[in-house]
Amino acid sequence: MKTEIRCKSKVFPTRRAFAKRYIPVIQKFIYSHIIALAWMLISIFASMQWIKELGELITIPVAVMVIAGIAYIPGYMNAFMVSSLLFDRQPPVKVLNPTEEITILIACYNEEKSIENTLRYVAAQEYDGKLKTIVIDNNSSDRTADAARAAGEKFHLNVMVLHEPVPGKNNALNAALKYVDTKLLITLDADTLMHKSAVRYIVGRMMTSPSDVCAVAGTVLVRNSRKKLMAKIQEWDYFLGISSIKRLQGLFQGTLVAQGAFSLYKTEAVKEIGGWPDAIGEDIVLTWRLLSKKGRVYFEPLAVAFTDVPETLKHFFRQRSRWARGMIEALKVIKPWQHPFVFVRYLTGVNLIFPYLDIIYTFCWIPGLILAFFGCYWIVGPATLFVLPLAMIVNYILYRYQKNVFKTLELRIRKNILGFIVYTLTYQLLMSPISVWGYFQELFRLKRVWK
């Protein structure tokens, strides 16, 4: 029932009623851009002296290019994201106890030590439908296949083990796709553990969604954050950064990556586009192909799985440079303007700007930060410190939403204060140079490595 306060002949909706008022997606899109544009105009006005001083050193046009890459465009994008998330009111999952039969595909390369635990969590799912599991041994040199069979028997699971001798995750998944006879399938990484309600929520979201939704990305979070600092930092990236970006993309019905670590797909839609492509970012290209065929991809925050992330800088470097390279691969295969929906054209088009931003950050911001320690405030100065309170406010808004997700799932957020501080202060210092290396790898077609 609508809550109202009546005053003579006028009717005023309360704040609670206003909060629940439906705003069409296109209006949210426009309003968020207006707010972001206003923020950027204020930033430009406030930076006129900065442009003048830096322009005396490197000319005004170059100064504008540098400052745009450091402040204007990132500020616009952050303002757009935060305002969009404040408008976000995701429809509830209506099908709470789906019974659709599901096939789970798990591609493995030398996962003898982890596959049993992964299958243990598959067996623990609170799901009323039948679950079939296909484990694909992708040319492993250990006893992955034997461990999978033993775990299947131990946990009374319907497990099929396949051998795919040709290396490559796409080859493993495509080999299994031939055996999938269910309408829906889930891809799951061999080191990823699903929350007990994960399958129920992700399938429920699919069953609740319009018929043109062909995939639903789950929420992937970090499970090994109690170990090294590198993992502690990434916990906040997954918890705040990646999850929030997926919420934003899901709001505009075009989640750009239904990640292979944990996502749900309509089997027929995957088969129609030829399965997983031969790409280092096979899940990115697959998702973009689904979007280009007028399919929509949603995101379900409550469908949570926990994965192991790199614990050393070396392995982190390899993973994130691979992600950056995968983005370029997707842009080469499907251009943003080729997508049928305006929201997806915008979301994929934003990726065209990332190389420019990462290059500016790597070769201008980071050297400017070093120069500031020696008293040269050409690019980074004392005023930069005012960015920190803004970053804290943004992260707090994102944190509040994620906290509600955890409360619903009866999970607790780990007290990882050190990881949060390092994440807030230094994460982009790592990410931009690593991404630039990924772009370089794709530009010169260097050797691709899956693991």
Automatic annotation (TrEMBL):
GO molecular function, one term: glycosyltransferase activity
The keyword Membrane is assigned to this record: yes
Source taxon at top rank: Bacteria
Keywords: Glycosyltransferase, Membrane, Transferase, Transmembrane, Transmembrane helix
Cross-referenced SUPFAM superfamilies: Nucleotide-diphospho-sugar transferases
Family per record: Belongs to the glycosyltransferase 2 family.
Protein name: Glycosyl transferase
